[in-house]
User: Fold this.
Amino acid sequence: MYEHGKSDSPVVPARPPNKVTAAEAAEERGLAKGNTGSTTHPGRSAGHDAPSGLDRVREVARRDKEARFTALLHHVTLERLRWAYRAIRPQAAPGVDGVTWAAYGQDLEANLHDLHRRLHAGSYRAKPSRRAYIPKADGRLRPLGIAALEDKIAQRAVVEVLNAIYEADFRGFSYGFRRAEARMTRWMRCRSGSGGRR
Assistant:
């Protein structure tokens, strides 16, 4: 009786609706049409085979070079913020606020929920970078800006979302940071002129 499959028969209303003619009252509804044959459902029940939101963004960016992406903030999720926190080196220097990786991780879930809420509410404001100086070989000092830990987390999460779009535009000979490719490999490709896509 409770099998998965097509609906039984068309639905006939049990009671006539108010203020209608006799012909409309006996109208029946046919079987469902549309996407009923789909094996995946939106949300968490989609399963592992369903493409994630970023996979769909990546596919649109690859297919349509003229596409404009206007709403991407919803891809900065708690999970992505958690991943960004774990991607930061635990020994990284603290920013102007003095918060270290370990201190932020003491109450990680509450901190990430708060950061997520502020990002999506539009109330998040980046802190100024802490200025540090590194000595160079010639005796001069090289200025370095060290971002606060929350800024690093937010930046990494946003970069992950934007990479889904811009990786489609990179060629094998493109300059810039490429996560899965060594510097020497890129240099050799540029030098030889082999511009195969990655």
